[in-house]
């Protein structure tokens, strides 16, 4: 099994999209990319911890590729809005890929460059690509939030 970590705004919808991918064996929503130790949702919502709402994905590389996960990441948010997704505004809602290996870093950079060259967006892609650091599991009520409520997505189109 391997891990991948993505931040793309509110973690509920991103988690639901990634959980639906065959080969994903588990997801955990939480906080990463900041400096405040063991943050809570309340802490992260202040915007002062530096953390992003993120999804840590455990996947079977024999069943799904990291490139496939990147495709789902790009398709499920707007990577051109800085620190914002829909009505959610703040650094905790930023677009960021947290890589775990040099191979993930190379794949993330290549996929971003390919998307930029495609002309799919009129504005520049602002997604950061950074090394994965400590990941703090969010409170239990955030885990599989949409699934528990019978919702498929919270994505704003």
Mind explaining what this structure looks like?
With 157 residues, the chain is α+β, with helices and mostly antiparallel strands. It is 29% helix and 25% strand. It contains five helices and eight strands. Strands 7-6-1-3-2-8 form a six-stranded mixed beta sheet, covered by helices on one side. A two-stranded antiparallel sheet has the order 4-5. α3 crosses α4.
Task: Give a quick rundown of the structure.
With 157 residues, the protein is of the alpha+beta class. It has helices at 11-19, 41-45, 66-75, 102-118, 145-148, and strands at residues 2-8, 24-32, 52-59, 84-85, 88-89, 95-99, 128-131, 135-137.
Characteristic terms for this protein:
157 residues, 25% strand, single chain, alpha+beta, six-stranded mixed beta sheet, two-stranded antiparallel ribbon, 5 helices, 29% helix
Mean pLDDT, all residues: 92
Helix content: 25-40%
Q: Helices and strands: which structural class?
A: alpha+beta
| Spatial separation of the terminal alpha carbons | 33 Å
Q: Outline the low-pLDDT stretches.
A: none
User: What pattern of helices and strands is seen along the backbone?
Assistant: EHEHEHEEEHEEH
Q: Using the alpha-carbon principal axes, give the shape.
A: globular
Number of strands: 8
Strand content: 25-35%
Rg measurement, Å: 14 Å
Strand order of the largest sheet: 7-6-1-3-2-8
Largest beta-sheet characterization: 6 strands, mixed
**Number of helix segments?**
5
């Amino acid at each position: 099994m391997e891990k991948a970590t993505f931040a793309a705004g509110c973690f509920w919808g991103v988690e639901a999209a990634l959980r639906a991918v065959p080969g994903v064996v588990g997801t955990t929503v939480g906080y990463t990319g900041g400096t405040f130790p063991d943050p809570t949702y309340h802490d992260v919502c202040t915007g002062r911890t530096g953390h992003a709402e993120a999804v840590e994905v455990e996947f079977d590389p024999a069943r799904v590729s990291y490139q496939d996960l990147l495709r789902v990441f790009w398709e499920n948010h707007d990577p051109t809005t800085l620190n914002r997704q829909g009505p959610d505004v703040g650094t905790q809602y930023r677009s960021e890929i947290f890589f775990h290996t040099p191979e993930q870093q190379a794949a993330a950079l290549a996929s971003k460059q390919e998307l930029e060259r495609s002309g799919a967006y009129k504005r520049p892609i602002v997604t950061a690509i950074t090394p994965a650091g400590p990941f703090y599991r969010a409170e239990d009520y955030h885990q599989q939030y949409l699934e528990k409520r019978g919702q498929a997505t919270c994505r704003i189109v």
